[in-house]
Write a structure and sequence with these properties.
The protein is α/β, with parallel strands linked by helices. It has a single domain, classed as 3-Layer(aba) Sandwich (Rossmann fold), CATH 3.40.50.880. Helices cover about 30% and strands about 25% of the residues. This is Glutamine amidotransferase. Keywords: Glutamine amidotransferase. InterPro entries: ChyE-like (IPR044992), Class_I_gatase-like (IPR029062), GATASE (IPR017926).
């Protein structure tokens, strides 16, 4: 069986390690079937997409909608590499699942509008599936509404042409969409559980997502949420394409 590929854009080692562990845990993949490339360390890595059953793109400290003059050289290099990879992924409709930063990256690439209109604080939100999701294979078996973890400064304001809206929340209209048949993106984090999110809260305590002095209170709040249903999206993706 082919492995899957996780494209990581996290520059913090602990956050990158936690992200890999989360994708392994909630996708059900054994370590030997999930390759990871940290694009912040090797943006020019040789990636043969045909080797992989599917591609994951995780979250990021980067924002796709930031003005170019505010982006670091590393961010510019990473985004250029992602556009190059998406040229092939989108053209060939290769299985792809982007989470958080992935929704903005795919959204911008495909012609959508991503900005700060629908930012959400770190929290558990109720995601409600659309009628279209009822016929979508990745959403098969999911409840009509479920809780999932979010925390983002930007979001899709206008879907790319041809995209199908699959999920929404009260404060963020685009929580999940599909492009073509095999290209998916979620604004929420299907890979995160409470422990992993607590680590993220520690890592990004001073990154502007929340007042730093509220970190411990925030950990307690998110720990009370049941986000198990959101993890099913990763497992289903692996079942469909693995």
């Amino acid at each position: 069986m082919k492995p899957f590929l996780l494209l990581s854009t996290r520059d913090h080692d602990a956050a990158a390690a936690g992200e890999l562990a989360s994708f392994l845990t909630h996708s059900g993949l054994p370590p030997e079937r999930l390759d990871r490339i940290r694009l912040v360390l090797e943006p020019d890595a040789d990636i043969e997409l045909g080797r992989y059953a599917g591609v994951f793109l995780g979250g990021s400290p980067f924002n796709s909608s930031d003005p170019l003059e505010q982006k670091s050289d590393v961010q510019v290099a990473v985004e250029a590499r992602l556009r190059q990879l998406l040229d092939t992924i989108v053209a060939e409709d290769l299985p792809f699942l982007g989470a958080c930063y992935g929704v903005g990256t795919l959204g911008v690439f495909a012609g959508g509008v991503v900005d700060r209109t629908y930012a959400e604080p770190i929290s558990a939100v109720r995601v409600t599936l659309t009628d279209a999701a009822a016929a979508d294979p990745l959403c098969a078996g999911l409840p009509a509404a479920f809780d999932a973890y979010v925390g983002h400064k930007e979001a899709v304001r206008e879907l790319p042409p041809g995209a199908v809206l699959l999920g929404s929340s009260t404060a963020c209209p685009v929580q999940m969409f599909r492009l073509k048949q095999n290209l998916y993106a979620t604004q929420f984090h299907p890979e995160l559980d409470a422990g992993a999110l607590a680590q993220r809260i520690d890592v990004y305590k001073y990154a502007g997502y929340f007042p730093p002095e509220t970190a411990e209170e925030l950990k307690a709040e998110v720990a009370a949420a049941d986000v198990e249903a959101s993890h099913a999206i990763l497992r289903r993706f692996v079942e469909l394409y693995g």
